[in-house]
Amino acid sequence: MQRRRLRTLAAVVSTAALSVAASTAVAATTEAAPTTAAAQSAAQPAAIGNNWFAAAPYLMPLDNDPPDPGQVMDATGLKAFQLAFILAPNGGGCSPTWDGTSPVASDTAVAGVISQIRAKGGDVSASVGGYAGTKLGQACGTPEATAAAYQQVVDKYGLKALDFDLEEPEYENSAAVHNEIGAARILQQKNPGIYISVTTAGTADGTGWFGKQMLNEAKSQGFVPDNFSIMPFDGGFSGAAAQTSALTNFNTVLQSTFGWDSATAYAHEGISQMNGRSDSGEYFYQSDFQAVLDYATSHHMARFTNWSVNRDRQCTPPDNNGKTSGTCSSVPQSPWDFTKFLVKFAGATPPTSPTPTPPPTSPGQCTAPAYSPTAVYVGGNEVSYNGHTWKAKWWTQGEAPSTGGSGVWQDEGPC
């Protein structure tokens, strides 16, 4: 099953934006020593708790029309981002790059983004792997060589956190998984206190055969990260209930693999969601995020994140004509609605927006009567809900229109 990280190549950061980022960049190595006190302050990692790394959403800083991270922080109270993705060079080799094209060694653009975030009291984690491109675990011959490549990233940016995003096809390659898990173990030993998450595919059973093999590899190497997270989307999931069921099953997998009790397993378990419309046409609304957040907090889970900040804004039209985008969610929303759930998981209260955001649709656009949770509907009845017209397929009461649930409602599109 595919877990694509949607990329809009036409939406790569503009040259002007990169120039601004470069002018503020300060690398965390001797390659680019800060020249001013302000630059040095911006380059230093902020003193934030691991609760923020556990709630850091994914952000592509060089692609998918990246939002201004400072504006996101001001609007939501967020303090950490998960920058994606560190890969092997597209032309081959065992050196770290951003997206396979921008060498970390000579980077100034991402360094500028990091400096901006740190200047506002935040910090970042780097995510290695993802769905597309060649991973360093595939390109480097040993765990030691793989770890050395990642250590360059840690040293360059002064990182306190890393995410190992092990997906298709890499996690189907046992040698590559051995290298990645071995590298994570070495980095954990070499960088005391570093926060490490391991993210992999989710299935109704928690995770699939390859995910379980990855867990067995971690066990055989004696490696335990801060969390193992699954991605319960793009696999036939429908809303929060399917996701929480997968999390319950994944908890059982962790127990059986590592010999943990349920509480210990939850303390090492995380979730990475996809906000809005998934690659395979599943829908996850704000109400789904709230339900999963309630599950995660009540079970004292270790991580709650999503793909991605780039997508946490409304499309035009809101449903994006039934397509999935890398730059917006394809569901009605206000800017950064989904990010605010992550802020709550970190233990903070998102600020109230000083300017109310207009509703997705203006009054009068929907001609069908508004949905009522107390009304009885029969096949053929039409209602308006969240800016869309919905038609009941059979008798229903108390089930809000959505593409999930029992399937009683047919989405007839925006009003």
UniProtKB/TrEMBL annotation:
Superkingdom, natural source: Bacteria
Biased composition (Polar residues): 317-332
Region named Disordered: 311-332, 347-367
Matching InterPro entries: CBM5/12, CBM_sf_5/12, GH, GH18_Chitinase
Annotated Gene Ontology cellular component terms: extracellular region
Listed Gene3D superfamilies: Carbohydrate-binding module superfamily 5/12, Glycosidases
Any one GO biological process: carbohydrate metabolic process
SUPFAM superfamilies given in the database record: (Trans)glycosidases, Carbohydrate binding domain
A GO term, aspect molecular function: carbohydrate binding
Biased composition (Pro residues): 351-362
Keywords recorded for this protein, A-Z: Hydrolase, Signal
Keyword Acetylation: no
CDD domains: ChiC_BD, GH18_PF-ChiA-like
Pfam family, one: CBM_5_12
Domain Chitin-binding type-3: 368-412
Keyword set includes Phosphoprotein: no
Stretch forming the signal peptide: 1-27
Annotated protein name in UniProt: Glycosyl hydrolase family chitinase
